[in-house]
What does this fold into?
Amino acid sequence: LIELSDIHKIYEVGADRVHALRGVDLRIEEGEYVAVMGASGSGKSTLMNILGCLDTPTTGSYRLKGRLVSDLDDDALAGIRNREIGFVFQTFNLLPRSTAAQNVELPLVYAGRDAGERERRAREALEAVGLGDRAKHRPNELSGGQRQRVAIARALINHPSLLLADEPTGNLDSTTSEEILRILDGLHERGHTVLIVTHEEDIAAHAHRLIRLHDGAVVEDRTATA
Amino acid sequence: LIELSDIHKIYEVGADRVHALRGVDLRIEEGEYVAVMGASGSGKSTLMNILGCLDTPTTGSYRLKGRLVSDLDDDALAGIRNREIGFVFQTFNLLPRSTAAQNVELPLVYAGRDAGERERRAREALEAVGLGDRAKHRPNELSGGQRQRVAIARALINHPSLLLADEPTGNLDSTTSEEILRILDGLHERGHTVLIVTHEEDIAAHAHRLIRLHDGAVVEDRTATA
Ligand SMILES: Nc1ncnc2c1ncn2[C@@H]1O[C@H](COP(=O)(O)OP(=O)(O)OP(=O)(O)O)[C@@H](O)[C@H]1O
Ligand SMILES: Nc1ncnc2c1ncn2[C@@H]1O[C@H](COP(=O)(O)OP(=O)(O)OP(=O)(O)O)[C@@H](O)[C@H]1O
Ligand SMILES: [Mg+2]
Ligand SMILES: [Mg+2]
It folds into this structure.
């Protein structure tokens, strides 16, 4: 499904250069459940943004289902982002003037579904993350963990074949985290590919494979044997 | 230091009413180290915002050092917020067009310190959280955990007598979290009062007292015996 080859990402900040990813090679098959760990600043979100087609590498290639992502035009990229990939951002990225329900149904708007179907599916998605009674709240009328769950519901609503979750439980208590992980486990059991960035070992334990980054390089890549 | 008496907070959202805090009574002495835990949406941030004089209760009273906060005028409140209280927000609340160093020195600007002192202290504060080499980056040029650490450095720079930290390690790996906790422990050892909202038991274990919220009410309030 995913093939990264010698990926480098270099940011320029004034006269500084930050080498955020240094030669990352990665192969991820369809249906894998992968945890990505590493210190703050080690390049995890940068990697996720490239995988999610939200950013481009400085050098190196990214093949998604065999097709070179850099060859795709804007329409094809947008199509992939909306239909194939679900992204839970580390900083949520909700629309501040829209309600929770409006935020969650956004991917369905892009998919051209009609209003009745969108409302029904948005309501189900919010109920699945325990926010059925918060549908009409705007982000600033929600707690931190509730905003995080709206971001999760939005990422899941299109049943994406690839889910990229960047620290989806960072603001959640353990009970709520477990509910979210059950959803991710279920997604994986139905054949979807799940990548989750996390700082917590017991969350990483749900995945089948662990990739660890350090200073922009992959220093560990092991598959659970059991 | 802190005395909350029968605090209620009710938000109105359209026709709905959310009873976020339901009759909270709390006494916190100077120099205490308190962890606040509870499920997502249980009222922790609402409680912190009231303690930090960023929001007012719907009913009930808040005495800070014996003075009724509702009696203070805007200038007095602003003075307390800038000089006495350090606040690490759950969503960081950094100025997007300012650099990390400019964000960190903001409390010193309000305190009227001159530019030379502000730059020196901002640099030291950033080095203390491991971001000495990120001073000129803006928030969107920082990782999630780096933004969180800028927010922490900004809250600490005035050596506040009361530090309110709302989930300060939610985006940090365990090594970086420990560094931050050592800073908070050190602050406490020097006599400051520290309140930290956290979802993680081993972070709460650093504190001397644990307050647990459930649906806006205090359901547990125990002091460690040792
Ligand atoms: N401005 C607001 N308007 C309406 N409701 C609000 C507002 N802010 C918070 N709420 C609601 O009040 C309740 C408590 O919110 P609060 O942010 O204090 O929770 P929390 O314990 O900090 O949760 P988390 O662990 O998810 O950060 C939530 O159910 C939330 O939906
Ligand atoms: N737009 C940018 N411009 C400049 N530097 C950047 C930019 N985005 C990220 N960086 C830098 O690249 C490095 C990697 O950032 P990244 O966000 O991938 O880290 P991360 O592993 O997700 O960290 P965290 O666990 O704190 O979220 C960091 O050192 C950061 O300062
Ligand atoms: Mg990140
Ligand atoms: Mg909160």
User: Anything to note?
Assistant: Chain B touches chain A through 34 residues (CB under 8 Å).
